[in-house]
Design goal:
2 copies of one chain form a homodimer. By secondary structure, chain A is α/β, with parallel strands linked by helices. Chain A has 3 domains: 162 residues, 3-Layer(aba) Sandwich (Rossmann fold); 130 residues, 3-Layer(aba) Sandwich (Rossmann fold), CATH 3.40.50.1220; 175 residues, 3-Layer(aba) Sandwich (Rossmann fold), CATH 3.40.50. Chain A is built from 20 helices and 18 strands. A 7-stranded mixed β-sheet of chain A has the order 9-14-13-15-16-18-17, with helices on both faces. In chain A, β13, α13 and β14 form a beta-alpha-beta unit. At the A-B interface, α2, α4, α7, α16 and α17 of A face α2, α4, α7, α16 and α17 of B.
Chain lengths: 516, 516
């Protein structure tokens, strides 16, 4: 007899869900058993829940369809929160299935009982506690629809174990999404009027304004009206290279961002929010463009490409003229030169595969990548949109599963990688074509920079101990091999280039430990 | 000029706090800088927040004084939740310091902003968002007092960055705890009366009834009135061995626990709650002793030892007569015999150091340990009280820091160890005398058992994939060496015994990968 768990999976399959990133426990066993009977949904094991949620984020960014996660009660769900925070900020569609105690058992406050709703609300755009087996089909269909609504978000469905094993209702039909949102003609006319009236205007692109068509339209607008153009600092997915315009990201540190935007009297936002600093600092305002009136063209993930194209036509822009000059001179590096982020980025630029997916959680070490590859082959870049570190490795796994015909290059800082290094197991088990470049600078370099910015020129013993990844130094090659991922350690640019070429021509994952 | 962060640390030091398990970010830099000026508080880096909270749990279980954690915003805090759940269930005193955006910046919903209170409430017995630098001294003193109140709990204090760097108020004096709670004479008389009236009574001991004095008193009572006696299944801290009574834990699976308690007409609870099943199962009640009237002698952590001693006197019990017979025949194992949990436990029993601290997160593999060591040298056992896996390695680190003169033996299942394996770095960096016995059975064995219990005799591909830790097999020796922890792999009982002897006579951490 089919259980309600079977109905859930049939409903999900009919709604387009293909994959479930799972770290189940006892309360999820009926769903695991149902997965055995649902070959259309691929189960992928994560050894830690943050791996599952990061994989789902990577999958959803590439597919714009939700992956499911399967998580165990409140504490298991809690382990997934940091990467769900990133998914929420990136507006990635994700559907969490969270098992709970049986309805009768919940009243006894047994050891693993907790307030799942309070934990889930801060990262969920939609939340429901399923109360009866008969509701599980429709609850599932609504969760999936909610994950795709309003540009994409995180839907969390809590399912008591006895609801999972209860008698299955008929699967629910997919809920047809409301017709795709469209920016009104009135708004486009108004933005065009503002652009014409401005003498120092800028465009800030984010989210779905970072697709290929949207960026070409934005380049047309910028040419036509003489606007400066910036990409939001941490894009969820940014198409780059090939014939695309060589735009630059808004700088991370607020002083530099404020300077970049200082002379504008108007800032058009396409798929982006009004720019604010990542953190607050003494004596500094949070707004980065206080002098420029921000005008919203399109909400994130809600029709930015069409709006930019309409706006380009409205301002009488010429056809797209191809990529402009690269943002800065190409980086030259000789063989055997010392291994620093600039040298690494130059080597990456030399062998970046066509159509690669680049996952950037390289923090300070990743900055030179952008200039080095702006005029390279086409690639997609996924960054740490929500700022919760530990996203890179799982996001790479999810993206590789979503796009098996594309190579994935994971640019990864050592400090951040520690939070979800268990993703290396998933790379090995699923034989994913992911090359991890592990930038080993053996420190939380960004924190050392922040301390210097705060005027702490001579950190004491405590500060040093909390910002250095030394005593002992992490051996990333050993860690990778512990998870079944082949690894090599390199200490010079020539060795790095050779290792990267080998890795990119090999099937399955590789980790290159680059000692900076 | 001293900052409010300095006031916080001075207040904490005056209140008896000695250590801070930290994984800070930009919003915690003023507290990190203040740690440089506060040599009385030891900062210990965790590479993942769940390591920090698990360390604090281990420290607090051994010291009954709070450790502090230092965590970064909502997502960083979220990573600590699973082990705070365990601390909450164990009533361990813990004080979380959670940095937040500056007060002005919070309104801008920048990428890392989230609802920290909603995340923290489910694991916190006390929560406060500090609003002004002038309040930080008193808020700290109150947080520390709250962590020790009502038997112990988790206090979470959110501190905006600008509150940390604001002008420091005078440090607040420690808040004197209310006088230690005491079980009333009336309750002791009433329990004694119920015991005399019962013909088939039992005692269930938990929490502070598992100290040495309390257990000796409980043994006197059991002898005097002919009571059966059980230890709660997952004690926070249980003193065992030496001249202590050889009590047994209540079984984990509800059928066995119910059978153990079936013939009782009365169940006295000392430091324990009325026993309930860990999970709900089809057709089974959650209560484990439905026929026995549960009578509370003492709340967890609130005076159980004195109450048991008074009760023993009241029922006219004779003096403590020493440990009874061991709970089952000693396990015999020959050299070179196959390596299974029974053989491992026998070897552990042969070389368990006097006064060791044993951290049991060995799940199914750890069960034979208890019978093998009941009559061994004195030791303390800390178990997975809250059921949120990933507690063992960090708890071992915290216990070792709390008790530098005691050896720590960490009995660790492979599946659970993955959730917080970053604790291995902390073992190495702090040169802790921790011997990790890693039971490598390459599966989530408990889930396979649960599937069999649910009648799934032939798991399908999905079930197998989600419960087996194979393809690839984890190489725990490589993982340990990646974190600077010496490791050896053993595959037979003789080799294990030799490796264990070597490890226990060596300074610093070792991991023994026992291939089952």
């Amino acid at each position: 007899m089919p259980t309600a768990a079977d109905s859930l999976l049939k409903t999900a399959l009919a709604s387009g869900v293909e994959i479930c990133f799972a770290n189940p426990g006892t309360t999820e066993m009926p769903l695991v058993a149902a997965l055995d009977r649902s070959p259309g949904i691929r189960p992928v094991l994560g050894l830690f829940e943050g791996v599952c949620s990061g994989c789902a984020d990577g999958w959803g960014r590439m597919r714009r369809q939700p992956a499911m996660t399967l998580l165990h009660l409140g504490p298991g769900f809690a382990n997934s929160i940091a990467n769900l925070h990133n998914a929420r900020r990136a507006r990635t569609p994700v559907v969490n299935l969270i098992g709970d105690h049986t309805r009768a058992h919940a009243a006894f406050d047994s050891p693993l009982h907790s307030d799942i709703e309070s934990l889930a609300r801060p990262v969920s755009t939609w939340f429901r506690h399923c109360r009866a087996p008969g509701d599980l089909g429709t609850d599932t269909a609504e969760a999936i629809a909610a994950s795709k609504a309003a540009g994409g978000g995180v839907a969390s469905l809590v399912i008591p174990a006895d609801v999972q094993w209860g008698e299955g209702p008929p699967p629910a039909p997919p809920i047809t999404a409301a017709s795709a949102p469209r920016v009104t003609d009135e708004r486009i006319l108004e933005v065009a009027r503002r652009l014409r009236a401005s003498s120092r205007c800028g465009l800030l692109l984010g989210s779905d304004a970072l697709g290929a068509d949207a960026q070409r339209a934005a380049a047309r607008i910028a040419s036509a009206v003489g606007a400066k153009l910036w990409i939001e600092t941490f894009p969820a997915r940014w198409e780059r290279g090939g014939d695309l315009p060589a735009f630059e990201r808004l700088p991370y540190f607020p002083e530099a961002a404020r300077e970049a935007l200082a002379d504008l009297d108007l800032l058009i936002l396409a798929g982006a929010r009004a720019p604010v600093a990542f953190f607050g600092y003494p004596g500094q305002a949070s707004e980065l463009a206080p002098a420029a009136a921000p005008v919203l063209l399109s909400e994130p993930q809600l029709g930015s490409a069409a709006a930019l194209e309409a706006l380009a036509d409205e301002v009488g822009a010429a056809a797209y003229g191809g990529p402009g000059p690269p943002p800065s001179a190409p980086v030259a590096v000789g063989a055997g030169s010392s291994l620093d982020p600039v040298a690494l980025s130059a080597a990456i630029a030399r062998c970046l595969p066509e159509n690669a997916i680049v996952i950037d959680e390289a923090a300070t070490s990743g900055l030179p990548f952008y200039a080095a590859t702006a005029r390279g082959p086409h690639h997609s870049v996924l960054t740490l949109t929500g700022g919760a570190i530990g996203q890179g490795l799982p996001c790479a796994a999810g993206a590789a599963l979503a796009c098996p015909d594309r190579r994935v290059l994971s640019l990864q800082a050592d400090g951040s990688a520690q939070y979800t290094l268990q993703a290396l197991f998933t790379l090995a088990r699923e034989s994913l074509n992911v090359t991890v470049v592990l930038f080993s600078n053996r420190s939380y370099r960004i924190l050392q920079i922040e301390m210097a910015r705060a005027g702490i020129s001579e950190p004491g013993a405590a500060s040093r101990s909390l910002t250095q990844l030394t005593e002992p130094e992490l051996d990333w090659s050993a860690l990778a091999r512990g998870y079944g991922v082949p690894a090599e350690r390199v200490t010079d640019a020539e060795g790095f280039g050779q290792a990267l070429e080998r890795a990119l021509s090999t099937s399955g994952p590789t980790l290159i430990e680059a000692i900076l």
